[in-house]
Design a protein that fits this description.
This protein is an all-alpha fold. It folds into 2 domains: 29 residues; 74 residues, Ornithine 4,5 aminomutase S component, alpha subunit-like (Helicase, Ruva Protein, domain 3). 74% of the residues lie in helices and 0% in strands. The chain has 8 helices and no strands.
Length: 122
């Protein structure tokens, strides 16, 4: 096995002059540089599994959550968040969350809420 070139001393030279407080601040800065792209991905992208999970936590059964999520995928609403779509529909029609989600299984109702999100995007 080829021996690794140990360059720790040269790479850590700039750290030796730092106080504990400065080291902690430097560590947090580097950590932020690593974490920020991951957080960005988490905020911008979702999956059907995540959206089903959100719906189940809102009180829907796994079968209902699956059906609602699939219907939202058909209408390209999943990017808005399944829970957000159900919430918005419930607000517009003065329904509780469960009733709103179940009504969205009707194609006509899904078309109506899709129009709402299309107009909001423009």
């Amino acid at each position: 096995m080829k021996q690794r070139n140990d360059d720790y001393n040269t790479r850590s030279e700039h750290l030796k002059k730092m106080s504990d407080h400065e080291l902690k601040a430097y560590f947090e800065k580097l950590t932020d540089q690593i974490i920020d792209p991951l957080l960005d991905l988490a905020y911008r992208y979702t999956t059907p599994a995540i959206e089903r999970s959100v719906l189940m936590r809102m009180g829907f059964s796994s079968l209902e959550a699956k059906a609602i999520t699939e219907k939202m995928m058909d209408y390209h609403l999943l990017e808005h968040g399944a829970g957000h779509v159900v919430f918005k529909y419930a607000q517009l029609h003065k329904l509780n969350m469960r009733d709103a989600g179940l009504k969205l299984l009707d194609t006509h109702e899904m078309e109506k809420i899709a129009e709402v999100f299309t107009h909001e995007a423009n």
